[in-house]
Amino acid sequence: MKKKRASGRCLAAGLAAVLLAASVGGCSVGTENPAAAASSSENGGSSSLSGGNTAAQGRNSTEGETENLAMYVPYGEDGGYVMVDQETGSVFTVTMPEEILDIDGNLIGPEKLEKGNILRIYGNGIVLESYPGQYPGVTRIQVEETGDPSDADQYQELIDGIWQEPDPSELPEMNVEYTTSLAVVTAATVQGGYQWSSPLADGTAESVIACPPHITEWEFQDSIRLEGSADLALLFSKTPDQVTARRWPEDPSGGTAEQSGGEEVEVTADSENGRFFLKQAEPDYRYLVTAEWENGYVEYGFLTAGL
Description:
seven-stranded mixed beta sheet; globular; disordered N terminus; signal
């Protein structure tokens, strides 16, 4: 049945934050105080790790690359996972590279990685301070040992501290990730209108609808600052079935923009990784992203500005 839609309301303030770089692997990322790891400064410094340059099966590291030996530990049903460094115990995720090789040196996709695999991870060694850490500069991954799924059971307590089975009544969240010349930036978005159904204990379902003002009337505390046009990764806490987007020009004088229509924006899907990308976002626009699930739909908004 086609879902009835309403425009979104500002339910939470957006917050753009740059996650500063830290070391992992040869050195350890700070995990004792995750809340202190994120910084709101876009000019934050970075440090690089100096991992051991042990030769990987099938291909040696090149000059300037660092290496980490980590176990792949997946969780949940939406492609969640962490890497656990086998020397330091540091916990991080990676931006999956195009070059992922199995134990025989054959090219594979990230969906072929299995619980308990020991991976040799090559990259620039710069990991963003968060918990788990984020490692965007990975250049290639080699499966060093197949391992066994039971090998990852030792990290169950760690996984329990990171991830909990989602409450079906809670609305999924969406962040935006993009790259500037200074850093990889992750920004939260403003949640807007939605229609959401969740099951009740008696077998029935409860449906909630929010019908707030048009996005041109929303107040944004922060904006996503772009150096020019850029592709934005749309990161959802639960992978949606479909994502669409529209935009409205931001009035530089602070006045109310025209509400009619808006302009459709291209959104592409990476089906293997369950990721969506908003193509060629530009400064000085209000973007409204609508994501749909079996339970319903949720709108998310953000404002862009130039550097």
